[in-house]
Amino acid sequence: MDTIKHNPARLYNCDKTGVTIIQHKHTKILGLKGKRMISSLQSAERGSLVTVVNCMSPTGHFIPPLLVFPRKNIKHELMNDTPPGSIHACHPSWWSEIFSLWFLHFIKHTKLTKEDTVILVLEGQYSHTRSLEVITLARENHVDIICLQPHSSHKMQPLDKAFMGPLKTFYCQEIEKWLRSHPGWASCHRLPNWRTIRKCIQASYNRRNSG
Q1: Which residues face 89 on adjacent strands?
Q2: Fewer CB in a 10 Å sphere around the end CB: N or C, the chain?
Q3: For residues 32-69, b (16+ Cβ closer than 10 Å) or e, as one string?
Q4: Nearest 5°: phi and psi at 76?
Q5: Quick one: fold of 2-21+44-210?
Q6: Model confidence at 83, in pLDDT bands (50, 70, 90)?
Q7: Cα–Cα distance for residue pair 67/90, rounded to 1 Å
Q8: Of 23-37, 47-61, 115-129, which gets the smallest average pLDDT?
Q9: 3-state helix/strand/coil string of 150-189
Q10: Is the pLDDT of residue 192 over 50?
Q11: Which of 14, 21, 28 is nearest to 169 (CA)?
């Protein structure tokens, strides 16, 4: 913390989560006492998983997200209604070169100088800790990286608790609203698009800043 002079605005936490175009979790339902079965509409599709990389400081400075699509080539329509400033990448899985792309995006939005450095808290994954390109970029651009223990983000990752959790809850609620207002469409039409996700991101951001 001495390197950033105990300034919370220069402390960032980066985390990623998976977002599907279908319902991935269910909210709790209130029912009459003794009633064992309660009907609920659900999507019959499996959906595709899009990786969303978010980063934020304790003061609320939000870095526009990176969206990683599980495909080889990008279609520009996929970026319609995404949060302003978002960037994209395509790959069947998560690779270190994609994280390097995000890291350059992070440097661009934090306006780093030798006198005004930042601390970036990450998961201790291989793509974060063993990428020579990322380590070199961090040294050249005055970024101090702190890596958490692998597979511990659900307990130690601030963004996972304060932002990702509410984001998935809000998204689940929006999908349930859509299913109720579009009966019979669950298996033959796309469910809420990036406009809905952007709305949920904003709601989660507002909840984190108000809480």
Answers
A1: 68
A2: C
A3: eeeeeeeeeeebebeeeebbbbbbbbbeeebbbbbbbb
A4: -65, -25
A5: Nucleotidyltransferase; domain 5 (3.30.420)
A6: confident
A7: 8
A8: 23-37
A9: CCCHHHHCHHHHHHHHHHHHHHHHHHHHHHHHCCCCCCCC
A10: no
A11: 28
